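Quick one, T. Sequence first:
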Amino acid sequence: MIERRVPHGLVFSGRDTGSWGELSEPIVQAWQPLSQGFERLCEKYPRFKNTNNIKHLGTLGTGNHFIEVCLDAVNAVWVMLHSGSRGVGNRIGTHFIELAKKDMERWFIHLPDKDLAYIPAGTEHFTYYLEAVSWAQDFAMTNRVVMMNNTLQALRDVLKIPFEAQLEAVNCHHNYISREHHYDKNVIVTRKGAVSAKLGEMGIIPGSMGANSFIVRGLGNEESFCSCSHGAGRVMSRTEAKKRVSLAEHITATAGVECRKDESVIDETPSAYKPIEAVMAAQADLVEIVHTLKQVLCVKG
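Structure tokens:
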């Protein structure tokens, strides 16, 4: 039922199964606060029009994106999901990377690697990039809210038990920029695979399929710019995991979890990632663990 209510995956031939075919009224309404900002971006960069923007709102995607139903230590039920700004966010990112590389050539700035290209503060591209990435972060936040609402409704439909999700929702970005104040300076912090961990701030550190996940509280460690890791990180590339991990090993590693157990998802198997417990131990000075979650169901794109 979750898979029916939340588009996921990717199909290159025909309609993309990871996007909406027909837009429902709730999706149209959720898009409204985003529409004006998107129109401004398209006026400057028309190529953004040809993206899955509204059709990706409330959809999961592929790779390490997931929707999970978990239990904590006292068997309270948690719904956790991970997705971002989808196709339109990817297009925004790749577009400004291209602009940065062209700027490096135009200004005769020689870098050790072309992927180190950057957009200097105060330039026109810098201003528009900040606007574009801010919009993409708003899209990502709305995307997760819509998915969560549809996932909760799927649970209500299946369980036939009325319930309300009344506890605090934890919603955090993990690939993003933020204007902050550190070491007596106003700075822009880029967090890649990391989340904000200000003093008392709640965060999410998910494990892989079959591994524990953690709800954490930030300790406000200034040496990390009040940040912590978002997850375990890979020890195998996707290609390497598919070569080295057998289907039988994947099935054993995900025992007790209702999830996909086919060869096409082996690149997300638990052994493709670092042990999450070791990662948590390494950042004990950045966050404290509030809840330890074990998934019982995992939906992958």
